[in-house]
Amino acid sequence: MKKIPFTKKQMEDLAEKYPTPFYIYEEAAIREAARKLIGSFSWDKGFKEYFAVKATPNPSIMTILKDEGCGTDCSSLPELLLSERTGITGEDIMFTSNDTPAEEFRKAHELGAIINLDDINHIAYLEKHAGLPPILSFRYNPGPSRQGNQIIGNPVEAKFGMTREQILDSYAIAKEKGVERFGLHTMVVSNELRTDYFIETARMLFDLAGEIREKTGAELEFINLGGGLGIPYKPEQSEVDLAAISDGIRRLYEEAVNSNKMSKVKLFMECGRYITGPHGYLVSTVRHVKDTYKRYIGLDACMANLMRPGMYGAYHHITVLGKENAPNDVECDVVGSLCENNDKFAINRQLPKINPGDIVVLHDAGAHGHAMGFNYNGKLRSAEFLLTPNGSFRMIRRAETADDYFTTLNFTK
Amino acid sequence: MKKIKLEGAITAIVTPFKKDGALDIDALKRLLKYQLSGGINGIVVCGSTGEAATLNDEEYARAVKCAVEEIGGKIPVIAGAGSNNTQRAIELSRIAQEQGVDGLLHVTPYYNKPTPNGLVAHFKAIAEAVPLPIIIYNVPGRTGSNVPPVMILRIAKEVPAVVAVKEASGSINQIGAIIENAPKGFVVLSGDDALTLPAMILGAKGCISVVANESPKLFSALCQEALKGEWHTARVLHFKLLRLMDVNFVESNPIPVKAALSMMGFIEDVLRLPLVALENKNRPEVERCLKELGLIKRKNGKN
């Protein structure tokens, strides 16, 4: 059974004031996750986690993580602006984007962020539109030498990053143009639970670091291992083994340093899901129960509130509050109200008998949940609440109103 | 003198009447239970929302007593005891005191047009006669004369029993001026539901409210969020309640709120003359607001 840090009564009280659906994030657990990640790399004094803002772009969450010593991994102008407004600037921001517009480079440069380039041609583009900063990082795509996974896909088919030849050339070009400090980045997998993947990524990057030093003379200051740490969405899955990952990386790191492949570079990560994913919950009320060729449970939340099941076929565990111990003996599809048949949170799921008015909790919605929300069918985005360590619920985003949704429209004749 | 904690949402409770016009104590009890379960922070009984002007002494005493007993000390009970006859104001205050209230709400004397010295003397006389904390009620819309901030502050200074003002002038400037210059511990309460949030941003501690009759839960949540400085949330609640706050004044208060409470099944929709029940044309809007807030059920299956 998956844990829930609030009671049915608390949700009923909250829903009376602020209608469902809404998101709840547990502050204490988010802090704990950040501490666990940073703590497991304590052998590297320079280790830093850059929280992937795209996972949960809310200043209250970002402030909590700033407090835990995290920087931000930004991928767009609004994410840069959010960081700035949360008081996160300079090299506490790493800007990794692709198909990047000039204004985003300009803002990243203005903030003093570490800019991570996705393509060799971006060196000239950045220089032209924003000027070259003293520190640059490049994103590596290993191509056929690595396998990737379901979400990111086969590296050869992935649009991100540069080939080995390009990345080596990039360091040489940047060095010639006067850039003095360098970083290296990759992101091969997403939501990965297997230890080996992360250790193999580190091995690949440490080897590449040696080649960069050898062929271009550029000395890396940091290596960003990317994110991709998975979380156990299904109850039978177990947590990623951080200690084993850290241990494996440490051995390779020491080997690389001792064999003089690279200096004692700082290691960075940019996890989002690992930090907030399991600690966010989408709370929704059952509107209708419909029996046709199947049984459908209709929620007041829909795919516009949580896109992952519809988009990736992702599993999100569902708990019916007050029926935690009832037998899961009714097979049903749990659906939203979008006019799209992939608007299903669960298909053929065994759940307790559900009635209209029941409150259901969709687990592990803390990352890429609200963040991926959209407005199709005129669906409005929900509120977000922070469950604070003192047990109160703080509204950290209000629900959208129809007026918010119409605000960009021109109604004049 | 009794201490009184004036903070948050204080409901100016209506006085329910039976169909024949008699005081309906059972209905009053129902309302008070609903208020307590909604987390309200205080009750004003027999204020202008409570049609006190139409109650005789015996009814007044019974209503006040009912409130004191039903609330049982959990939150402050304040009795409206105002009059433009100082002697009468003292009599009402004594009756309220005998029933065990925690404080008195005194409207500034209307009609007689007292001078500043007369105003001070009025409150001084009440304070000397009845040792209870007093809230001044400034409501120019009813009294016909505004008591300016300097005068409120002068009364506060010269009559220590006056611990608070219920400001219903509708002027946010005036509310700000009182708060800015108020002696330590002097409490400003909004007397307008819709001005509660702006007043609390300036430092008011809460509101003596009409809309809390209908939704004690939401209105007390609004005040609590504002007291915590959670303006973002308070704004959400403000806008959620705004339409109902406005509708409550579509006719003279408490006409709409009594109609609403009767739709909610708490009371009969009976007022005492010269007030009469809500006009039919205004009923659908009241009903719509209550439905929107889930305060009355939408008809299922019917119609």
Outline the secondary-structure elements.
The complex is a heterodimer of chains A (413) and B (303).
Chain A: H1 8-17, E1 22-26, H2 27-40, E2 48-52, H3 59-67, E3 71-74, H4 77-85, E4 93-96, H5 102-111, E5 114-117, H6 122-129, E6 135-140, H7 164-176, E7 181-186, H8 195-216, E8 220-224, H9 242-258, E9 266-269, H10 273-276, E10 280-291, E11 295-299, H11 308-312, E12 318-320, E13 330-335, E14 344-351, E15 359-362, E16 383-387, E17 393-397, H12 402-406
Parallel strand pairs in A: 1-16, 2-3, 2-9, 3-4, 4-5, 5-6, 6-7, 7-8, 8-9, 11-13
Antiparallel strand pairs in A: 1-10, 10-11, 10-15, 12-15, 13-14, 16-17
Chain B: E1 8-12, H1 25-37, E2 42-45, H2 57-71, E3 77-80, H3 86-99, E4 103-107, H4 116-129, E5 134-138, H5 140-143, H6 149-158, E6 162-167, H7 172-181, E7 187-190, H8 196-202, E8 206-209, H9 216-227, H10 231-247, H11 255-263, H12 283-292
Parallel strand pairs in B: 1-2, 1-8, 2-3, 3-4, 4-5, 5-6, 6-7, 7-8
Polypeptide structure, described:
The complex is a heterodimer of chains A (413) and B (303). With 413 residues, chain A is an alpha/beta fold. Chain A folds into two domains: 8-24 and 279-406, Lyase, Ornithine Decarboxylase, Chain A, domain 1 (Beta Barrel); 27-276, Alpha-Beta Barrel (TIM Barrel). Chain A contains twelve helices and 17 strands. The termini of chain A are far apart. By secondary structure, chain B is of the alpha/beta class. Chain B has one domain (8-239): Alpha-Beta Barrel (TIM Barrel), CATH 3.20.20. In chain B, 45% of the residues lie in helices and 12% in strands. An eight-stranded parallel barrel of chain B has the order 1-2-3-4-5-6-7-8, surrounded by six helices. In chain B, helix 3 runs parallel beside helix 4 (116-129) and helix 6 (149-158) runs parallel beside helix 7 (172-181). Chain B is globular. The N and C termini of chain B lie far apart (58 Å). The chains are: A alpha/beta (413), B alpha/beta (303). At the A-B interface, loops of A face helix 9 and helix 10 of B.
